[in-house]
Amino acid sequence: MYSIILESLQYSLKYTIKIVPIVTIGIFVANFLINTGIMKKLDKLIKPIASRANISAISTLAVATCTFSSTAGFSMLSEGLNEKKVSEKEVIATTLISSFPSILSHLFTFFIPFVIPILGVITGTIYIFLRVVIALLKSIIGIILAKIWLKTKVMDAQDNANKRLANPNHYIVPTTPTYTQISKKSLKSTYKVLKRIVIVMVIALFVISILDKLGAFENFKNIFEPISNTFGFKSEIVIVSATEILDTRAGFIVAGDFLNKNILNTTDVLIALLLGNIISFSTRFVKHSLPLHVSLFGYKLGTKIVMINAITTLLIDVLFIAILIGLF
Fold this sequence. Notes:
The structure is a single chain. This protein folds into 2 domains: 37-174, no CATH class; 215-328, no CATH class. 83% of the residues lie in helices and 0% in strands. The protein is built from 15 helices and no strands. Helix 3 (57-65) packs parallel to helix 5 (88-97) and helix 5 (88-97) runs parallel beside helix 15. Mean pLDDT is 79; it is low at 154-166.
């Protein structure tokens, strides 16, 4: 048993040491770009999308703001709703429209610095592409709902009336930090995120290695065999999905490990991660999304927003899993 523990520890540390430098560089660069205001330049991608929907100036700005902070964007909507400048239907539609800009912010904070190093360039890029397309589809659904619910475009007079609310300075105090300050802030953020990632990575790989050497995965295969056989999945796919439910990053680490060992291929990993997202969506939305939305929009509307967003994500994820199974 001692030798198994020692070998597993060596394996987990070796893999972590190999991958951490890449992740560190990615996280630091991402934080540096965010702190220099590069995320705000993504507004050019967002405004054409928002302009196609019949939403107000406040909602348009909220959608653009979601490229660097969903909380800040939703806070704008909340204030607009409280001042009766935005209707409940517009709030629901706008939260769906904001899905695409929100995923853009995750590109620099999670997908590029973490997912690609763990899954590799090809599998990681394909997964990111799928998540971006899923978010874009949600935004399109939001635009369609806005066109149906909000029959007429918001007039310029109303936009002018909303000028105080739509002023970014009303929410964000502009600062001009030096590059030294930005670098220090980025290093501090990188250390904070990296500390959590390294701990999860070492523990996850250590546990995986021990379970593998003890033959636990064979037992897991037997447990998940009925589920796997029903949907035609490899049992390891269900293991990745189950791990993702417990911890998102751990799920990616397990998937990357199976991929490196050729236990799963790219398609298997994509299905596993999408499946894990589906299984864990209820827990994730209840733990994170519900408290935020209820605090901003009240219990009734907040719950409605979370449910609509969750169900939309669920249905689109199921569709993409079906496509992957059908094609491959």
